Amino acid sequence: MRLRLLSLNVWGLPAPVSRIPAERMERIAAGLPPLHLDAAAFQEAWSPEARDILSRGGRRAGLPHTWSREPLAGNSGLLILSRWPIRDVHFTRYDLAGLPQRIQHADWYGGKGFARCVLDTPAGEFSLFNTHLHAGYGRVGAADEYFGHRAAQMVELALAVATTSRPVAVLGDLNAEPRSQEMQILLGATALTDSAAAAGRPMPTIVRSSPYGDGAAGRDARIDYVLTRPGVHAGLQATAVERTFDTPFTLEGRVETFSDHRGVLAELTLGGPGCPLPAPTPEALATARGAIRRGERIAEQRQKMQRTRALSAGALALGSAAAARWTRRQWLRRAARGVAGLALLPATLWAGLAEAFTPSEFAGYRRVAERLATLERLTNARASSARDDHRAC
């Protein structure tokens, strides 16, 4: 059976954070029917208005079944539309998904995670994953402050995929380029196939010519994917891939595009023989272990910096308070008290970040290490069972 699946980050933030969001969502919705889709996975459908416009467009395109999370804060921005009923939906918020003090980045507040559901097709069931990983806020794929978080998210996603026996399609904005360590972890731990690369169509999904930015620090990058893996009892593989929602249009004299990302449309074949579930590769697990250690070191350095700033601000507050007590000049006393009061706020802030938030980050890394240990056990178990199962994949 032929399946047509779309993944698109729609940049569905309200104005003025994004440009002309309602107009862009209407154009994306109008562009769905000609694609003859069987399912669509959207990311950054943050606002109720964006989800409503896209869902209405999905119904016109023969995709009447929808799933999303509705809370205003922490809704993940994920939206799934399907031609067939969506069942057994599980949303998992990533254990490590940003820093609350980085308000300008907002990933922590967005509640990023992955949605896993089962779609019942005439040819049988398959599991669809929709996800959006932590952004880099710099050159895409660079080892930045969030490298450890993104690698941890890959481990968490990989374990969910590796323990799913149905055919699997993973769609989403992974915020990682094909050769990155993060992608090595996910693909090596799951045997997922990058459909665009397999079809010889590895086109960038972030482009420097976009009117909404300069691409990945002034260059093109591919960070949006449709990944596939056969199930135990049925196959699933890509036969064609194309980039879509990539044509500029003019509105009120300005050049616009559907989103700051391009879409990925994959045509898949569901059916035929399945395969034994693959074992995670030792190389992927070693890369994951190194990434987790690196993320922990980044967190440790951040905690030391926060403690140093807390102590410095605290010392300034105490010194100013002492000066206010002993000086005889009224204007100096008032000034010293003012400085002491002002210094207490950053001292409390930095101490709170160091002693309240960073320990929860360390706890998240410990939980990810436990998931990695589970993947390591799968390697041993499946390597043993593969010797007894002679099906070719």
Explain what this protein looks like in three dimensions.
This protein has 2 domains: 2-273, Deoxyribonuclease I, Chain A (4-Layer Sandwich); 283-386. The chain is built from 8 helices and 14 strands. The protein has helices spanning 21-30, 48-60, 107-110, 147-162, 181-190, 195-198, 282-326, 330-386, and strands at 2-9, 39-43, 65-68, 79-82, 86-93, 113-121, 124-132, 168-173, 193-194, 224-229, 236-244, 249-251, 254-256, 263-270. The protein has a 6-stranded mixed beta sheet. A 6-stranded mixed beta sheet has the order 5-6-7-8-10-9. The longest helix is centred in the C-terminal third of the chain and has 57 residues, at 330-386. The radius of gyration is 24 Å and the shape is globular. It starts with a strand and ends in a 7-residue tail after the last helix.
Provide a short characterization of the protein structure:
By secondary structure, the chain is an alpha+beta fold.
